[in-house]
């Protein structure tokens, strides 16, 4: 799945948040987005699954293409959101059982076959690395899970509708190192079959898992390229400063 | 540091005494009512019609109990559904357009209308214009207008209090707002919404002004017809008391009314405490 962002700008009311973003992310693997707080990472991510427009005063110009198709062309945000899953910074467990959390999307999209639903539940939880921990408490309220488990549940819930792209907004920022490692390993596995865009504040995390990394500042692209290159031989001075910790 | 902790303790003491004062006032009222009216609150009082001359000096209040229950029932039937729809519109779909702001202000103003004014409107509109006459229906609908804003405001706040992250999570899956509402948001808000409806019912049960001019009479049979006038507890109390018919019966009626309201309010509180609990 290729993601192309062309001359993309976002405003809230008249206040500009993203300025003429141009970037291309081809195929599978993990694409990390780094940058100082408030530079527009979340807004960029939410633009890619059309949830940014839910916020008041949203305005945009430019194009975002998924496999060459302009996702803002049609007035059908829901089908884009189904294809582009998103996991948020704070782990969210919907107020229902673990199983119903995972099946929330599939049920909405009309899956009624019990066998299929059970298979989707098991497959998604396995993909999210949560199956072993919850297989005996699928009927328990999801609120009982730990933070790290909830975050993996959110990943399972997103995977259950078989998205082509998975967006993650600082998914580990409220988790302990062990849970973080678990999720990183998971993302690496998942990146074999689906495109992943990962916003992170943790430069080491970007270094560990990302094939490509994008540095943003003040709503603009500073530099992006293969992760190794960005960290070892940055082209721009801002990048060098940022990764050496001078500008955060 | 010393002055800080003194201040803290002083404030704490103030809050405590405020709470204590409220408790004392409430128990005082109930205690006094028990003292004056407790003896008249008998099974016979609850199960017979008023008798004697002037009417009410003996006998009970059964038609008034029935009338009040019917009035409240009609008010809730009339106000709950439109109130809920308005609340859902305001909390989920309204964003913050000029129209929503207008609706919000209107509801707020409606909540502030004195109940006697609502009564006069009910008289002009239901009793006279629509030709319902002095009736259960006219009174119930007037009470419905009175409690409508209460239901809207409590339901709106209950819906808005549901974790915003749920809505975002649903949206990010491509799930429609309506589906989110009926699977997540409304079930989460339900206890608080019900609690608001119960409070509104209590408000309607105790209101005298709107029914005085639309529905309530000194004596009515037990037919319970929609187009018939009815007796009602607060109005009966008002008559017993203002016409010096029987202070003892007046206190008995007041006690009954207060117990009914206490029951509704305590149920409402218990329900409200359940919002969002239990993981589901
Ligand atoms: N709904 C909104 N309305 C108005 N301004 C917004 C809105 N969302 C974001 N912004 C503004 O846009 C800018 C970028 O926000 P965004 O959340 O995309 O930053 P971020 O890079 O994700 O920051 P962080 O690292 O702190 O999460 C910020 O200045 C923010 O105040
Ligand atoms: Mg962010």
From TrEMBL, chain A:
Pfam family, one: ABC_tran
PANTHER family, per database record: ABC TRANSPORTER I FAMILY MEMBER 17
Gene Ontology biological process terms from the UniProt entry: phosphate ion transmembrane transport
InterPro entries associated with the record: AAA+_ATPase (IPR003593), ABC_transporter-like_ATP-bd (IPR003439), ABC_transporter-like_CS (IPR017871), P-loop_NTPase (IPR027417), PstB-like (IPR005670)
Annotated keywords: ATP-binding, Nucleotide-binding, Transport
ABC transporter domain ranges (all copies): 3-243
Matching CDD domains: ABC_PstB_phosphate_transporter (cd03260)
SUPFAM superfamilies assigned: P-loop containing nucleoside triphosphate hydrolases (SSF52540)
Protein name: Phosphate ABC transporter (ATP-binding protein)
Molecular function as annotated in GO: ATP binding; ATP hydrolysis activity; phosphate transmembrane transporter activity
PROSITE patterns, per database record: ABC_TRANSPORTER_1, ABC_TRANSPORTER_2
Species, as recorded: anaerobic digester metagenome
Lineage: unclassified sequences, metagenomes, ecological metagenomes
Keyword set includes ATP-binding: yes
Entry-linked Gene3D superfamilies: P-loop containing nucleotide triphosphate hydrolases
Gene Ontology CC terms: membrane
From TrEMBL, chain B:
Record-given protein name: Phosphate transport system permease protein PstA
Signal sequence bounds: none
GO molecular function: phosphate transmembrane transporter activity
PROSITE patterns on file: ABC_TM1
Subcellular location(s) per record: Cell membrane
Keyword Transmembrane: yes
Residue ranges annotated for the ABC transmembrane type-1 domain, each copy included: 65-268
CDD domains: TM_PBP2 (cd06261)
Topology of the protein relative to the lipid bilayer: Multi-pass membrane protein
């Amino acid at each position: 799945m290729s993601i192309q962002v062309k001359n993309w700008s976002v405003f809230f009311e008249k206040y500009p948040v993203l300025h003429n973003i141009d970037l291309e992310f081809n195929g599978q693997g993990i694409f990390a987005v780094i940058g100082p707080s408030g530079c527009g990472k979340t807004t960029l991510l939410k633009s890619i699954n059309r949830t940014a427009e839910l916020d008041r005063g949203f305005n945009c110009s430019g194009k975002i293409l998924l496999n060459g198709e302009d996702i803002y062309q049609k007035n059908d945000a829901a089908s884009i959101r189904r294809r582009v899953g998103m996991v948020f910074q704070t782990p969210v467990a919907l107020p229902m059982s673990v199983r119903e959390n995972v099946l929330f999307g599939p049920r909405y999209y009309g899956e009624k076959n019990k066998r299929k639903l059970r298979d989707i539940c098991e497959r998604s939880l396995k993909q999210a690395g949560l199956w072993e921990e919850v297989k005996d408490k699928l009927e328990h309220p999801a609120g009982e899970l730990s933070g790290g488990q909830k975050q993996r549940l959110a990943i399972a819930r997103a995977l259950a509708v078989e998205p082509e792209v998975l967006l993650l907004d600082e998914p580990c920022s409220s988790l302990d190192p062990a849970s973080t490692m678990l999720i990183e390993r998971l993302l690496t596995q998942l990146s074999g079959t689906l495109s992943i865009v990962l916003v992170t504040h943790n430069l080491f995390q970007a270094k560990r898992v990302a094939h490509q990394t994008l540095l943003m500042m003040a709503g603009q692209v500073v530099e992006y390229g293969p992760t190794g290159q960005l960290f070892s031989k940055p082209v721009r001075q801002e990048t060098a400063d940022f990764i050496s910790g001078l500008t955060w | 540091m010393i002055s800080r902790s003194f201040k803290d303790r002083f404030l704490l003491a103030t809050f405590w005494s405020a709470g204590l004062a409220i408790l004392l006032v409430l128990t005082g009222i109930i205690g006094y009512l028990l003292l004056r009216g407790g003896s008249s609150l008998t099974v016979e009082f609850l199960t017979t019609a008023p008798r004697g001359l002037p009417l009410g000096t003996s006998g009970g209040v059964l038609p008034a109990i029935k009338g009040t229950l019917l009035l409240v029932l009609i008010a809730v039937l009339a106000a709950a559904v439109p109130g809920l729809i308005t609340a859902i519109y305001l909390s989920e779909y309204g964003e913050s357009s000029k129209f929503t702001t207008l609706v919000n202000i209107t509801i707020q103003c409606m909540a502030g209308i004195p109940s006697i004014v609502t009564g006069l409107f009910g008289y002009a509109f239901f009793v006279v214009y629509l030709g319902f006459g002095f009736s259960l229906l006219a009174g119930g609908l007037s009470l419905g207008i009175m409690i409508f804003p209460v239901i809207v405001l409590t339901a709106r706040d209950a819906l808005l209090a549901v974790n915003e992250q749920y809505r975002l999570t649903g949206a990010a899956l491509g799930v429609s707002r309506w589906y989110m509402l009926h699977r997540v948001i409304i079930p989460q808000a339900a206890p608080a919404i019900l609690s608001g409806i119960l409070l509104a019912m209590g408000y309607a049960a105790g209101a005298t002004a709107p029914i005085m001019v639309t529905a309530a009479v000194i004596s009515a049979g037990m037919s319970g017809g929609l187009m018939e006038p009815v007796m009602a507890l607060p109005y009966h109390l008002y008559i017993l008391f203002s016409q010096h018919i029987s202070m003892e019966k007046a206190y008995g009626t007041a006690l009954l009314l207060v117990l009914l309201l206490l029951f509704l309010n305590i149920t409402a509180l218990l329900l409200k405490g359940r919002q969002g609990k239990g993981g589901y």
